[in-house]
Specification:
Blueprint lengths: L14 E3 L3 E4 L5 E5 L2 E2 L13 H14 L1 H8 L3 H8 L17 E5 L7 H5 L4 E6 L2 H13 L5 E5 L12 E7 L14 H15 E12 L4 H4 L17 H12 L10 H10 L3 E9 L7 E4 L2 H12 L8 H15 L7 E7 L1
Parallel strand pairs: 5-6, 5-8, 6-7, 8-9
Antiparallel strand pairs: 1-2, 2-3, 3-4, 9-12, 10-11, 10-12
The structure holds S-adenosylmethionine.
S-adenosylmethionine binds next to strand 6.
Length: 346
């Protein structure tokens, strides 16, 4: 493993390596090492597409028979298998200026599906997640792929355990929307802003933040598709207070998984100090992108109009074409796209 320099997520003091743990030289807080992974966050936290028991089994199996085999044995849902393994999901890395000197922080690395292809192209990737099983999996995956330029840690996006100006690029792919549940006493917006400011702190001057995320006002939500995060229809379209009451009524839980509109994301990034570098509409979505369409009206309408001709219409072709052209014109303003990719600069 390439050596990694840490700073205390509590007081920003420097960190001393004591062999079996790390310790802050200023506030004396200790951080354990579990299977050589530094633990800067609550070990009981769990997020996953499968339950914790199955994930633990998967990791044990990966140690003896490889991560691919472990996934195919423990997970029977092909969508999840593909989500965890398909490195084409990270096709967007070609939009970033990566070279052999680049240092990347992958925040909320999940199964490492982005971490691994990024590491093949650059100097060093630091992959963090708030779930220890995810981090353990990425560590095993990196070792099996023979990639020794990956460091991992259990850490939170809101308190990064790294000194200021440590990274050239910080990645948030499908992560920002999940952060709002971290603290029930604060609004999801406050928490998301804290994560954006933390990323700003650890970026070098001129460094880039990359965000892949859904559009709160995606057309499919108006057409009745369940929200990708609450799994309940229309929640992202509602005013926040209404979504909160409705979600609480339906599930007993708080509605914290806030996505935003195009202008909402732009305001957040600007308020965190970033300036715009480039913005894309990933087609068909940011999770499995095939094309990247620059987020300007002409490019996006051209792209979506070309897709209309690929749709199998019957006798109602004219009506559908007219309706879709009208809607694509609105998508062209970024109103109704499925999702966005933002590349902003410090
Ligand atoms: C939808 S997954 C995305 C995973 C990965 N980035 C990808 O694109 O495949 C969201 C990830 O964010 C992680 N996460 C949630 N809250 C976090 C936090 N406060 N700090 C760091 N990671 C967090 C979850 O554990 C999960 O792995």
């Amino acid at each position: 493993m390439t050596s990694q320099i840490y700073s205390c997520p509590v007081c920003r003091g420097s960190i001393q390596d004591l062999g079996k743990s790390l310790r802050c030289t200023s506030c004396s807080v200790s951080f354990p090492l579990i299977e050589s992974i530094p633990v800067f966050y609550n070990i009981d936290n769990y997020y996953g597409e499968i339950d914790r028991e199955r994930m633990t089994r998967l990791i044990e199996l990966a140690k003896t028979s490889g991560y691919r085999n472990a996934i195919s044995v423990v997970i029977d849902d092909p969508w999840i298998q593909d989500y965890a393994l398909d490195e084409n999901r990270a096709k967007w890395i070609n939009l970033l200026p990566l070279d052999t000197n680049t240092k990347v922080l992958d925040v909320g690395c999940g199964w490492g599906t982005n971490t691994i292809p990024i590491a093949r192209n650059i100097k060093h990737v630091t992959a963090i997640d708030a779930t220890i099983e995810r981090v353990k999996f990425v560590q095993l995956r990196a070792e099996e792929c023979g990639l020794f330029n990956i460091s991992t840690a259990l850490a939170s996006a809101m308190a990064l355990p790294y000194p200021s100006e440590s990274f050239d690029i910080v990645i948030f792919n499908g992560v920002l929307e999940w952060l709002g549940g971290d603290d029930t006493k604060r609004t999801p917006m406050d928490i998301q802003m804290q994560a954006l400011r933390e990323a700003y702190r650890v970026l070098v001057s001129g460094g880039l933040i990359y965000i892949g995320i859904e559009n709160r006002f995606s057309l499919r939500y108006f057409l009745g598709q369940a929200d990708d995060h609450s799994f309940i229809r229309f929640t992202s379209l509602m005013p926040r207070w209404m979504a909160q009451s409705y979600f609480k009524l339906r599930t007993g839980k708080d509605y914290f998984m806030h996505t935003h509109s195009l202008s909402g994301y732009r305001d957040m990034l600007k308020n965190a100090g970033y300036s715009q570098e480039s913005e894309y509409h990933p087609w068909p979505n940011y999770r499995h992108p095939v094309d990247f369409v620059k987020l300007n009206k002409i490019e996006i309408v051209k792209h979506l109009s070309s897709k209309i001709h690929e749709l199998p219409f019957g006798t109602r072709k004219w009506f559908h074409c007219t309706l879709l052209r009208w809607l694509t014109a609105l998508e062209g303003k970024g109103f109704f796209c499925h999702s966005f990719l933002f590349i902003y600069k410090k």
